[in-house]
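In the current project phase, work has continued on tokenised descriptions of protein folds. One protein thus recorded appears below exactly as we store it.

——
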Amino acid sequence: MKNKLNISAEQLKKDYNELISVNAVARKYNVDSGTIKSRLIKFQIKYKPQVKYNCDWDFFSKDTEESFYWAGFVAADGCVKIRKSSHGYGKEFYEMSIGLSTIDENHLVKFKEYLQSNHPIKNFKLKGRSYKGKQYKDTYKSEITIVSKKICDDLFKFNIVPRKSLIYNYPEWIIGHALEKHFVRGYFDGDGSLYASKSRNKKTHQFHFNVLGTENCLKNIKNFLNLTESVSKIRKIKNIYSLDYGGNNLVKKNL
């Protein structure tokens, strides 16, 4: 049964101006979008018609360099969610999202291009928090969200599941796969870093490779890179693990 909506014109206008979207207002009041549209029309409040978004829904169904790369990137820096419908019918909908610092927004633009998507990239300001008397600066985030059960189902094959951060398991079926290196490359671009250091006793910079993740994932990446225990370590840092190794020749070999 749909919920009844008792709202004034002033409140509805305020909600729509803040939330921008008819669907977002509908979610707030747990009603269907049609109810909100009818009220907007009744109160003569101008609103933008809903845009129908599209993309290559089968992108992650295909075994390509691009699909494996972006699956690896989503495994590192994205997420999938299963949400309850706000329309009161108990249905579920599936969404995939990637959120990055706004300075890396161009990578989301590339993602859209590969998926032939017209989904918007939304920008947010995250207010800096105060912790132990220290005030941190505001940060800026860019995010793309695609609602699609098909895309989420295909990402499940790569073990990309809801709330995966601390439980992610490297997909066994891609071990030895001809495209595995592209999955690892995408994962590294999402959760890896490359930096140079110079000690007092050396004239040249030494390059270092680092990638974060679960112990299971990093062990498999370590095996893929053929790294021995003597040149690389997996360390636990609070609830996450870090794989580190250095040496110019070794790092250059795996770039």
Remarks:
- The first strand starts at residue 78 and ends at 84.
- The mean pLDDT is 86.
- The longest helix spans residues 65-77.
- The domain at 165-255 is CATH 3.10.28.10 (Endonuclease I-creI).
